[in-house]
Amino acid sequence: MDLQLANKVAVVTGGSVGIGLGVARAFAREGAHVLIAARDRARVEEAAAGVAAEFGVTAHGHACDVATAAGCESLIAATRDTFGGLDILVNNAGTGSNETILEAPDEKWQAYWELHVMAAVRLVRGLAPMIAARGGGAVLNNASICATQPLWYEPIYNVTKAALLMLSKNMATELIGQNIRVNTINPGLILTPDWIKTAKELSADSGGDWEGYLQSVADEHAPIKRFGTVEELADFFVFLCSDRASYAVGATYFVDGGMLRTI
Ligand code: NDP
Q: What gap in Å lies between CA 205 and CA 125, rounded to an integer?
């Protein structure tokens, strides 16, 4: 299937590692140019250089904190300066949490709200006009299965990702008139370096069998009994952002190995 993405421009937040880097690589494999954003400058620039070298596209790494208004502004400016615009925005930057509602301070709720919700608001506000100026395109928001099926140790993550889902639905209706399709993906368990680091930490006191720990997580939560790979998920992102998915608007797609327990 030709996804017709050659020479399109995709901006991916949280694109220096994990799912975001996998998505950037998958776009580049289709011939799209990419601008990836993350806070750690050295890592994001190195990741972009790797994508450019591997796929022969233009890949730019931009260091910014998308959980701040200034960080979003700088990414919007970098998009304009580097590519003169864009066709696709993937709001992917995010991270899990661990707290109780009774103990978590207001500041922690606010920080996750800024990262999971306001980043998408601010970036769409700045970048949607540039997408529209090129005749339209796509915005894809990476929420989580936790947006609808919570993991009880991370209420702030669950709540802010649920808010992103509703934001995405509202964006879709507002932007489709400008030929910008907005959708959401809710991944289940995807094996990223962060999961491996967590597994190593949590299994250190009990013999260090981190792979066994990850298998136990998969066995407990995912009927498919394994984690998904970044590549399995990234292909889904890229398809949804392509014109081959031209009737997909305002929808939420689960890529979770059967983890969702409702219809
Ligand atoms: P990683 O922790 O592996 O990567 C996160 C990326 O986001 C990094 O590039 C990080 O770089 C960047 N990032 C984090 N905070 C900011 C910020 N404030 N501003 C700019 N960039 C930032 O995460 P994953 O790949 O595992 O997850 C990516 C997304 O997928 C997240 O939104 C997550 O909630 C979601 N998800 C993940 C699942 C999984 O199983 N892995 C399942 C469901 C959803 P840096 O630290 O340098 O800023």
A: 47
